[in-house]
Amino acid sequence: MRYTVSMLKEYIKTLEKGLEDLNARKDRFLYGYLEIYWPRRITPNQLSWFRVCIGILLFVLLFNFKNENGLVIFPLFLIGVLTDLLDGAVARHFNQVTRLGEMLDPLADRILLIPIFIYTIIDFKTLLSCIILFEIINALISLFTQGKNIFFGSNIFGKTKMFLQSVVLVAILLFWPQIPNFFFISLLWVSVACAAISVILKGFEVRSYYHARKVARL
């Protein structure tokens, strides 16, 4: 049993390193353009707040006004996804990482994604329930840690989950109202696995934090 757990941990570490390498390459690619073209007056937190506004607008359009016009919904969602792609890279490149940004970024992601999930995969109830469940668990962990003044930020599995979900939802909206095919649904299940690993790793981080504090008191 211990051998199996050890192998699983080693596999997760290897996967984590590979995903971090991919994320670092993405950042290096963006940095060259950001250095030349990015308007310095626009901060990462402003991008995150803009994403919150887009998510709220999408919710109102879809569920209050029953507006399902893809020519409206798709561009708004795509702009929201682009702000998520950029805000972290801008923050890291220009040394503008803040605690507010670390709290706001995942919140903005949830506000943007959840209305579109409900809109596009409502017929896949088990998948939708799993996605929402892990978002709730993640949010509760964030509330708990922030209430204790513990700030870990997003881990690479959480970032990968957001990337996969964003790409898949963009693709689904492109073909809407056609029912999402098996490939897209499979990728969303992969994102659920990433969300589960992200939650587990956050739990380990919280446990390690309290263990370190306990040792420091001795």
Can you describe this structure?
By secondary structure, the chain is mainly alpha-helical. It has a single domain (40-217), classed as Up-down Bundle (Four Helix Bundle (Hemerythrin (Met), subunit A)). The protein is 83% helix and 0% strand. The chain has helices spanning 2-37, 44-64, 70-93, 99-120, 125-147, 156-174, 182-217. It is globular, with a radius of gyration of 18 Å.
Strand content: under 5%
Number of DSSP E strands: 0
* CATH fold assignment: Four Helix Bundle (Hemerythrin (Met), subunit A)
Largest sheet: none
- CATH structural architecture: Up-down Bundle
Anisotropy-based shape: globular
Class from secondary-structure proportions: mainly alpha
First and last CA, distance = 32 Å
Structural Rg: 18 Å
User: How many domains comprise the coordinates?
Assistant: 1
Classify the oligomer.
single chain
Total of DSSP H or I helical runs spanning 4+ residues: 7
Ranges where pLDDT stays below 50 over 5 or more residues in a row are none
CATH class: Mainly Alpha
The chain-level mean pLDDT equals: 88
Order of helices and strands: HHHHHHH
Which bin fits the share of residues in helices?
over 70%
SSE arrangement:
Blueprint: H1 2-37, H2 44-64, H3 70-93, H4 99-120, H5 125-147, H6 156-174, H7 182-217
Helix pairs in contact: 1-3, 2-3, 2-4, 3-4, 3-6, 4-5, 4-6, 5-7, 6-7
Compact overview of the structure:
With 218 residues, this protein is mainly α. Helix content is 83%, strand content 0%. The chain has one domain (40-217): Four Helix Bundle (Hemerythrin (Met), subunit A) (Up-down Bundle).
